[in-house]
Amino acid sequence: MQSETDVGRHRVLVSTEEASHYLLNNWSSIPGPRFFDAKSACLDVMAGMGEPDDARAAFIAACEEAHVHLMQ
């Protein structure tokens, strides 16, 4: 999955850990409720308490909420 990080710049995320890192360190939008859901879902997966597909769906929802363009 790719997300647009800046106009004309893209980042490829291939794991829940990378998505979590992006949320925690590179999120450029004002965090909304879906951001916090995604962060929690990613951290749950990394702690062995969640499903990667749930974290992916939450990450996509956070991107949509923040109007971050995704190429899936």
Q: Helical region count?
A: 3
H/E series, N to C?
Answer: EEHHHE
Percentage of residues in strands: 15-25%
What general form does the structure show? Answer: globular
Radius of gyration computed on alpha carbons: 11 Å
Helix content: 40-55%
Our measurement of the CA-to-CA distance between the termini, rounded to an integer number of angstroms, reads 5 Å
User: What is the β-strand count?
Assistant: 3
Largest sheet: 3 strands, antiparallel
Query: How are the strands of the biggest sheet laid out side by side?
Result: 2-1-3
Query: Which structural class do you get from the secondary structure elements?
Result: alpha+beta
**What is the count of structural domains?**
1
Contiguous runs where pLDDT drops below 50 for at least 5 residues = none
Mean pLDDT: 88
Short description:
With 72 residues, the chain is α+β, with helices and mostly antiparallel strands. It has helices at residues 16-25, 33-46, 52-65; strands spanning 2-6, 9-12, 70-71. It contains three helices and three strands.
How would you describe what is shown here?
There is one protein chain. With 72 residues, the protein is α+β, with helices and mostly antiparallel strands. It has one domain. 53% of the residues lie in helices and 15% in strands. The protein has three helices and three strands, in the order ββαααβ. The mean pLDDT is 88.
Question: What are its keywords?
Answer:
single chain, alpha+beta, 3-stranded antiparallel β-sheet, 53% helix, 15% strand
List the helices and strands and how they pair.
Elements (H helix, E strand, L loop, with lengths): L1 E5 L2 E4 L3 H10 L7 H14 L5 H14 L4 E2 L1
